[in-house]
Amino acid sequence: MQSGFPKLKPFTPDSFEHAFEEIVPNETTYIVIVTRGHQEDQNVLRWAVQTNARYIGMIGSKRKIRSIAEQLESEGIPRERLERVYMPVGLDIGAVLPEEIAVAIVAEVIHMRRAGFKHPFSKKLFQPTHT
């Protein structure tokens, strides 16, 4: 597999904190947050919004997402940073099964890469509502 990614270096961190020390996202980086629990999602999101990543998406229910966003905002993370995050991650294609959810996530990443951030399919947590 590495032959298709010549610059790929194997990396297996023992904790998210160790990964944060080693990974330096830039304007061409896409981050998708899918961990084993709410607390880990929150910790990864706290780190991710402080980076220059081009895209940040996080999986989760609307309730979980609101709760995490409110908590991070109360910690002093600027709302503008949180506004960059696509939550819940993935295009809304009616995905239910894990495989379908994975396709929806990859589809959104491709969409952001190809169509840009102002396309009608784009969704963000704090996107203005039209009345």
How does the overall form come out from the CA principal axes? Answer: globular
Average pLDDT level: 85
The H-and-E topology, N to C, reads as HEHEHHEH
Q: Widest sheet: strand order?
A: 1-2-3
Summarize the structure.
This protein has 131 residues and is mainly alpha-helical. It has five helices and three strands.
From the structure above, extract its key features.
131 residues; mainly alpha; three-stranded parallel sheet; 3 strands
Question: Care to describe what's here?
Answer:
The protein is mainly alpha-helical and 131 residues long. The protein contains 5 helices and 3 strands. It has helices spanning 16-22, 38-48, 62-74, 79-82, 98-115, and strands at residues 30-33, 55-58, 85-86. The longest helix is centred in the last third of the chain and has 18 residues, at 98-115. It is globular, with a radius of gyration of 15 Å. It starts with 15 loop residues before the first helix and ends in a 16-residue tail after the last helix. The mean pLDDT is 85.
Write the layout of secondary structure elements.
Elements: H1 16-22, E1 30-33, H2 38-48, E2 55-58, H3 62-74, H4 79-82, E3 85-86, H5 98-115
Parallel strand pairs: 1-2, 2-3
Helix pairs in contact: 2-3
